[in-house]
Automatic annotation (TrEMBL):
Family annotation (Pfam families): DEAD, Helicase_C
GO MF terms held by the record: ATP binding; hydrolase activity; nucleic acid binding; RNA helicase activity
Keyword rRNA processing: yes
Domain DEAD-box RNA helicase Q, first and last residues per copy: 110-136
Cellular localisation: Nucleus, Nucleolus
Domain Helicase ATP-binding: 139-320
Gene name of the record: DBP3
Motif stretch (Q motif): 110-136
Source species, domain of life: Eukaryota
Similarity-based family: Belongs to the DEAD box helicase family. DDX5/DBP2 subfamily.
Protein name: RNA helicase
Length: 525
């Protein structure tokens, strides 16, 4: 007879095994379920992440990616505008007569939202609907750290073409460290006090929201105040004229230029060709080598006489030309040339002012050649009842600044000036320029005419041409023809021969040679 106890034990063991088996199955089922839940969550998360990346990718496709900044306070513009295609870029270049040499892989920024500049930098451009052609073409190259030569008509927005990329570099590369610097990181060299001051003001405007400061160094003003400002602000940007900059660096040792990463030569043709060459060589000799810094040059003219010299300071540059390299006069300027007898110029000027300055409120700029001539015209016009003021080299810097400010705000709408104002004056509402005396060079004529028709407006440049100016007739005729302007028969009578360009110091006896080439000794047997 079977043992009941044994059977019970067996049944208990079977039940226990069955229970354990069921528990194991339940545990395995729970484990599988947990794994499945985890997998589902992971898949869902990955799917969401992919969607987010795709959306971000779609957004990035419409904007040029900005470099990461130490400071995240300046967010890029959130408006997404697709980059232009190559065909659109070519059409833009053709429409604006833009020629790019040395690198054609960069597509222009046709909208502000396509740039890598943050909203705080772009605030300086809030009054403009879109970039100017020189800005559109140059910004992609400069923000890619390439050396650039930009040639464009006067009043085309060249200052912001280099100022915004410079400040963007400071913001993205140095972040909050750019607010106070032991050594300046950006250097802008300008030929005239007025131009330096205006460039400095625009740099301040563009860098204000980021706390990036600029100091302007120029002659004719109190140097002690400028040194005090340097010490107080420790600016990332210095805008200077060559003479005062060298004085502050060499004599006062108040600035160390060995840390400059971004160099700008504004009005580069004059900086390299009209007496500044030695100073510019000295200044650039204090900077890091041209492979350790970025250099950009801007001008309205780019004659052959300065190109080879400019190349020695540049590293594999890209050149952006709008119009001709030799002369680039704004097409919105109506150029009128009147051949007159020198003795009749005073009478002709008064007749023109009756026509052009009838309201006595619109801005008119009269150019004279010499300081005494400008002073004489100022006295004559004031005696005739005109509210006018003059700026020239015999006036103090304070008087010159006051005169320009009065002209800019319209309280004195008639300004007489020598060529100190030909390149440095930026007043958007100058309706008429009168060249009372023709300048010494055709390049200065270009810059004089550029004081009108700025910021997209149109203007008139009326020029008196006399027998004494006949050496410039050929060059002037070429400029008028290139702009489809009327050439008077009386001007053609002086001839169309273009006088050889003379050196500022050596005149017609100058020979353009390479000073680094060693002489060859010739031996006669």
């Amino acid at each position: 007879m079977p043992d009941i106890t044994t059977q019970v034990d067996k049944q208990q063991d079977l039940a226990s095994i069955k229970s354990k088996s069921n528990d194991a199955k339940k545990a395995e089922k729970r484990s599988k379920k947990e794994k499945k839940d985890k997998k589902d969550k992971k898949d869902k998360k990955d799917k969401k992440s992919k969607k987010d990346k795709k959306r971000a990718g779609d957004s990035d496709a419409g904007d040029v990616p900005a470099k990461k900044s130490k400071s995240s306070s300046d967010e890029p513009s959130k408006v997404s505008v697709p980059l232009v295609s190559r065909s659109e870029a070519n059409a833009f270049y053709e429409k604006n007569k833009i020629v790019v040499t040395g690198g054609d892989s960069y597509l222009p920024f046709l909208e502000f939202s396509q740039t890598p500049f943050g909203s705080k930098i772009l605030k300086a451009c809030s009054k403009f609907s879109k970039p100017t052609p020189i800005q559109s073409a140059c910004w992609p190259m400069i923000t890619a750290s390439r050396d650039v030569v930009g040639i464009a008509e006067t009043g085309s927005g060249k200052t912001f073409a280099f100022a915004l990329p410079a400040i963007n570099m400071l913001s993205t590369k140095h972040g909050s460290d750019a607010k106070r610097c032991k050594k300046p990181l950006v250097l802008v060299v300008s030929p005239t006090r007025e131009l330096a001051i205006q460039t400095h003001e625009q740099c301040l405007e563009a860098g204000r929201e980021l706390g990036i400061s600029s100091v302007c160094l120029y002659g004719g003003a109190n140097k002690a105040n400028q040194l005090k400002e340097l010490s107080k602000l420790k600016p990332a940007i210095i805008v200077a004229t060559p003479g005062r900059l060298l004085d502050v660096v060499e004599n006062d040792q108040a600035v160390d230029l060995s840390g400059v990463e971004f160099l700008v030569l504004d009005e580069a043709d004059r900086m390299l060709d009209q007496g500044f060459e030695k100073d510019i060589r000295n200044i650039i000799g204090m900077l890091p080598g041209n492979t350790q810094r970025q250099t950009v040059m801007f001008s309205a003219t780019w004659p052959k006489s300065v190109r080879s010299l400019a190349d020695t300071f540049l590293n594999n540059p890209i050149q952006v030309s709008i119009g001709a390299d030799e002369l680039a006069i704004n097409e919105r300027v109506e150029q009128i040339v009147e051949v007159v007898d020198g003795k009749q110029k005073n009478f002709k000027l008064l007749e023109l002012l009756k026509k052009y300055h009838k309201s006595r409120k619109n801005r008119v700029l009269v150019f004279a050649l010499y300081k005494k001539e400008a002073g004489r015209l100022e006295d004559m016009l004031q005696r005739k009842g005109y509210n006018c003021v003059a700026i020239h080299g015999d006036k103090s810097q304070g008087q010159r600044l006051d005169a320009i400010e009065a002209f800019r705000n319209g309280s004195i709408p008639l300004l007489v000036a020598t060529d100190v104002a030909a390149r440095g004056l930026d007043v958007p509402d100058v309706e008429y320029v009168i060249n009372y005396t023709f300048p010494l060079t055709i390049d200065e004529y270009t810059h004089r005419c550029g004081r009108t028709a700025r910021a997209g407006k149109s203007g008139v440049a009326h020029t008196f041409f006399t027998q004494e100016d006949r050496a410039h007739s050929g060059s002037l005729i070429n400029v008028l023809k290139s702009a489809n302007m009327h050439v008077p028969d009386s001007l053609l009578k002086f001839g169309t021969t273009v006088k050889k360009k003379q050196h500022a110091s050596y005149g017609a006896f100058f020979k353009d040679v390479d000073p680094d080439v060693k002489p060859v000794k010739i031996v006669f047997d």
